[in-house]
Write a structure and sequence with these properties.
globular, single chain, Alpha-Beta Plaits, binds iron/sulfur cluster, 24% helix, 2 helices, two-stranded antiparallel ribbon
Amino acid sequence: MKISIDPGSCSGHARCAAAAPALFRLDDDGYALPYDGEVPDGQEETARDGERACPERAITVG
Ligand code: SF4
């Protein structure tokens, strides 16, 4: 499972990091940073929590 973040849609709400701090990191302005690699086993639902938390639908998990 991977996490994709559309930088053109991200508006820096930081809700992804609030919902799933282990998976989503923010830059100094509060915009989500790209996620490299695979979501660790057992954290798939956490990744989806972050996806659902984004009001801009900038996150795709799959
Ligand atoms: S919740 Fe969405 S808009 Fe906000 S920082 Fe995360 S990816 Fe960007």
